[in-house]
Design goal:
By secondary structure, the chain is an alpha+beta fold. It has one domain: Alpha-Beta Complex (Cyclic Phosphodiesterase, Chain: A), CATH 3.90.1140. Helices cover 28% and strands 29% of the residues. The protein is built from five helices and eight strands; from the N terminus they run αβαβαββαβαβββ. A four-stranded antiparallel sheet has the order 2-1-7-8, covered by helices on one side. The longest helix has 19 residues, at 3-21. The radius of gyration is 17 Å and the shape is globular.
Length: 191
């Protein structure tokens, strides 16, 4: 692992401790599907430290160190049991197959840009649709666009890396479902 990646990883661990100690929590739960992706280190090595967006005391930015695709964010965790969420996720185990990470693109807002891969797999939309029908949730985004975040970058920096990573794509096997609760607790189930 490069010195920069090691330093960044150590910073994430430190930020996580600060975040947990301060009692910071999220408003909602999040269902995700995780992958083993050793290539992520190589992708991160291409990103210059000065281009990475970090916010003091918040470990949810920077380099994404847990390769995943969000299935549904906004779950009202106080209205459903952990078992209900996991039962719904597990009902898709037999239909899961390879997920394709295709075009590198970005999301933008006034604070940062999200460098990401678009994710393809019919089952992703099917899982999202089922979770939306079966679970109480809140979202500001009516359309589901599956993606895997690579990094959070300062404004106007993403295009540089879209150009660098152009043409890269991967096929990944899902390894686990994760239900992240508002208090930061993560419930996992191997696939």
């Amino acid at each position: 692992m490069s010195k920069f990646l090691l330093k960044t990883f150590e910073s994430f661990k430190e930020l996580r401790k600060i975040n947990e100690a301060s009692g910071n929590t999220y408003s909602y739960g999040c269902a995700m599907i995780y992958f083993n992706m050793p290539e992520m280190d190589d992708l991160h090595a291409k990103i210059e430290e000065r281009d990475i967006y970090m916010e003091d005391g918040d470990n949810s930015y920077g380099l994404e160190n847990e390769p995943h695709v969000t299935l549904l964010y906004g779950i009202h965790s106080d209205e459903v049991s952990d078992d209900e969420v996991m039962k719904l996720l597990n009902s898709f185990k037999s239909t899961l197959n390879t997920i394709k990470l295709t075009k590198v693109s970005k999301f933008e807002n006034s604070k940062f840009e999200v460098l990401k891969f678009d994710a393809e797999g019919d089952v992703l939309h099917e899982i999202n649709s089922t979770l939306c029908k079966e679970l109480p949730f809140t979202t500001d985004y009516p359309d589901y666009h599956p993606h895997m975040t690579i990094a959070y970058l300062k404004p106007k920096m993403a295009q540089k890396y879209i150009d660098i990573l152009e043409g890269m794509n991967f096929e990944l096997e899902p390894v686990k479902f994760v239900y992240s609760k508002p208090d930061g607790t993560k419930i996992t189930e191997s696939i």
